[in-house]
């Protein structure tokens, strides 16, 4: 049976991380050749080796997603290895190292860091990717948001809200040229970084949050996000544009 992403080339930024590795595998298992791009070079190499060991197509690239030249080199690496680029998953980000205190009291440098890494990187990598995608008639861009963006307090939430605004703006700008640009807003997901940021599963803090999720399994592994990822990445999702898909078990339940 033909896979939905056969002959497609994808980049997953933050591909060495907890969610990024799962995204990369899911895309590769659907037939895509995947560039695992991360500033953690050893982690990216390890993740790519696991995929190639299973007969999947993957390479690792070291990138700093905040640096335009580095992002351009990442895209060039995709072209050199696999002949072009079709899918960009802007997943790299930081959570636990951002201050959770009052934004009236945090140093302004932290504001810059949060916005630069979590939101600015989406623009930097998209700007690097779009020319290569245009060579193949357009592309699919999927940005990693967070349901944290729907709450106030702290810089992480603010930075992820900017991702949604960027998503809508890019979708409007690029849609007619054969692109779709969407975001995924995950709720609580079990990764090491997620535990550092939102508490371990045995912590009161995390359990209280899980109690507010109307789902049989309220605290999930990254594979809970794969359905949304593949819908947005595949031809089946090509009329979905400018949207944020919330994948949080119904905690952000809106009429
Ligand atoms: N885990 C959760 O509960 C959760 C929930 C909602 C959203 N998210 C978002 O999902 C994404 C992945 O989260 P995760 O839990 O897998 O975290 P993670 O720390 O495991 O993965 C993030 C990856 O991004 C990389 N990275 C960070 N800064 C970078 C930079 N400047 N250049 C290149 N790579 C960089 C890191 O090296 C890391 O491998 C993040 O954007 C996060 O905000 C996570």
Structure overview:
- By secondary structure, this protein is α/β, with parallel strands linked by helices.
- The chain has one domain: 3-Layer(aba) Sandwich (Rossmann fold), CATH 3.40.50.
- 43% of the residues lie in helices and 15% in strands.
- It has helices at residues 18-29, 41-53, 68-82, 108-134, 155-174, 192-198, 204-211, 226-233, and strands at residues 9-13, 33-38, 58-62, 87-90, 139-144, 179-186, 244-247.
- It has a seven-stranded parallel sheet, with helices on both faces.
- Helix 1 (18-29) links the parallel strand 1 (9-13) and strand 2.
- The relative contact order is 0.14.
- The model has no long low-confidence stretch (mean pLDDT 97).
- It binds nicotinamide-adenine-dinucleotide.
- Residues 13-14, 16-20, 38-40, 43, 63-66, 91-95, 117, 144, 146, 186, 188-189, 191, 193-194 line the site of nicotinamide-adenine-dinucleotide.
Oligomeric state of the chains in view:
single chain
What small molecules does the structure contain?
nicotinamide-adenine-dinucleotide
What's the CATH H-level superfamily name?
A: NAD(P)-binding Rossmann-like Domain
Could you give a short account of the major beta sheet?
7 strands, parallel
Under CATH, the topology can be stated as: Rossmann fold
Give the beta-strand count. Answer: 7
Which ranges are low-confidence, i.e. pLDDT below 50, for 5 or more consecutive residues?
Answer: none
Cα end-to-end separation? 39 Å
Name of the top-level CATH class: Alpha Beta
Quick one: overall form?
globular
Q: What is the string of helix and strand elements?
A: EHEHEHEHEHEHHHE
Number of domains: 1
Kindly provide the radius of gyration, computed on alpha-carbon positions and rounded to a whole number of angstroms: 17 Å
Total number of helices: 8
Helix content: 40-55%
CATH architecture label name: 3-Layer(aba) Sandwich
């Amino acid at each position: 049976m033909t896979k939905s992403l056969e002959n497609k080339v994808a980049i997953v930024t933050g591909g060495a991380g907890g969610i990024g590795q799962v995204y990369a595998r899911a895309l590769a298992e659907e037939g895509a050749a995947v560039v695992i791009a991360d500033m953690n070079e050893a982690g990216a190499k390890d993740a790519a080796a696991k995929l190639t060991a299973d007969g999947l197509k993957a390479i690792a690239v070291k990138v700093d997603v905040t640096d335009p030249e580095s992002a351009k080199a990442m895209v060039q690496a995709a072209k050199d290895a696999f002949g072009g680029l079709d899918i960009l998953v802007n997943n790299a980000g930081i959570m636990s190292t951002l201050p959770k205190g009052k934004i009236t009291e945090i140093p302004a440098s932290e504001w810059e860091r949060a916005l630069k890494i979590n939101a600015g990187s989406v623009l930097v990598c998209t700007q690097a990717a779009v020319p290569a995608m245009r060579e193949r008639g357009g592309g699919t861009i999927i940005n990693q948001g967070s349901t944290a963006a729907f709450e106030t307090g702290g810089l992480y939430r603010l930075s992820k809200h900017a991702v949604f605004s960027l998503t809508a703006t890019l979708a409007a700008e690029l849609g007619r040229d054969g692109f779709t640009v969407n975001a995924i807003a995950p709720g609580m997901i079990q990764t090491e970084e997620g535990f550092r940021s939102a508490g371990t599963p045995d912590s009161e803090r995390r359990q209280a949050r899980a109690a507010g999720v109307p789902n049989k399994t309220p605290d999930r592994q990254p594979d809970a996000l794969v359905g949304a990822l593949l819908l947005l990445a595949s031809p089946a999702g090509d009329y979905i544009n400018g949207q944020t898909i919330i994948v949080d078990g119904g905690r952000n339940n809106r009429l």
